[in-house]
Amino acid sequence: MAAWRLRRWRLPTLGTRQRGCAPRHGDPGRARRLLLSQLFQPLNLQAGGEAGWEGRPGEPTCRSQRLMLQAGLVHPSSPGCYCYLPPTVRAMEKLVRVMDEEMRAVGGQKLNLPSLSSAELWRASGRWDQMGPELFRLADRHGKDYCLAPTHEEAVTELVASQSNLSYRQLPLRLYQVTRKFRDEPKPRFGLLRSREFYMKDMYSFDVSEEAARQTYSLVCDAYCSFFNRLGLPFVKVQAATGSIGGTMSHEFQLPADVGEDRLLLCPTGHFAANVETVNGEQTSCPTCGEKLTQTKGIEVGHTFYLGTKYSSVSNAVFFTPENKLQLAEMGCYGLGVSRILAASIEVLSTEDSIRWPSLIAPYQLCFIPPKKGSKEEEEGAVLMERLYDDLTEALPHLSGDSVLDDRTQLTIGKRLKDANRLGYPYVVVAGKRVREDPPVFEVWDQNAGGILFLTKEGVIELLSKVRVL
Fold first, then answer.
1. What's the whole-model pTM score?
2. Which residues are CB-contacts of 283 (< 8 A; sequence separation ≥ 6)?
3. DSSP 233-264
4. 321 and 327 in contact (C-beta within 8 Å)?
5. Residues 460 and 448: beta-carbon distance below 8 Å
6. Which residues fall within 8 angstroms of residue 110, CB to CB, at 6 or more apart?
7. What is the DSSP pairing of strand 366-369 with strand 403-405?
């Protein structure tokens, strides 16, 4: 595309600030430039990675695990446990903000329940023994038993049951949290896809009747569909078994992938979708249209359950009806695997050697690449690149914390561009040979679309003004 020459317009004068306000960093009034060399993101981007980066001996690996290790997104701590490094925390915080928006849209109220859960609650529901060795168990100094909760049905139901004057007017209650969960996996594998410590968004609903509870169930399922659509992920909602959670109805939200551990049966015209655990082993055709079912593997990233009174009857979670009688609340529970969605997104969207993020949750939206030190473009290009960085963050302040300057100018532009591609920045702005033109022209790489634009400074700012940051 030819250089995009927009009419010249004056940006707000740099260096100005409100009277009495001190500068935040260095130059008065300027946003601090985020330099790649100063980020705590230990990169290991050599082709294929180095020994030890693809898992422990004999441990199965997958694309997302390899890419996240190479990109310095996670660091293995112990089997099934990882350090989440700053870019991953940024992506996860953005992901949680999308979840918060969807949960608030269905009347969700956010709380936080203890990770340390009393064995008494779990014994009362029968799950202390039912969960078996997957439950992390411990005892305090007084000999009282606890577990590190993999889920919180017992705890949240006990909380609601403690409200002795709960009225039907206060229902439905839709309570949710985003917390660490724990599961003693016998064979942790595939990085964040199957770990012992993980993050989950779990919602618990309390309704006045089965009909109302099923309406809530449908509402939350629709919110999950909206959530995955916003991320641009190719999900499928399937009938599922209730397992150790219990209840009478369940659905999983799956991302089809070769590395998935669930087997799915899908109607090619979309009339039927189920986990193979729920169907007759001889079923080969769609019960609605008769088409032959196809089988694929999937990564479970969400799960919903209609629970009825399974837990409310144990804890006596009741409310007063309009007739002033006590009645058990009808429940549902709904989970989204936060850390698993991060890894699964990379698994299904990326190439073998380059990360691709859902654009909404990329740790950083933009990477600037100035000229190589000692090149013909260095003196003029470096100044123009810094000016573009500062002008862009002034004109588009929402991008100021989402822009990285790759200051490793001892490396060629090509090498840094290759690294930027592998790290998955949605946009990369390069000060190449054409910055010496009048007016200067920058290369803009749209990584998700796979295209290159040649734009003036004004054109770059106009293009990036459309980028949404959570």
1. 0.91
2. 265, 293
3. ---EEEE---TTT--SEEEEEEEE-TT-SEEE
4. yes
5. no
6. 100, 103, 175, 176, 177, 178
7. parallel
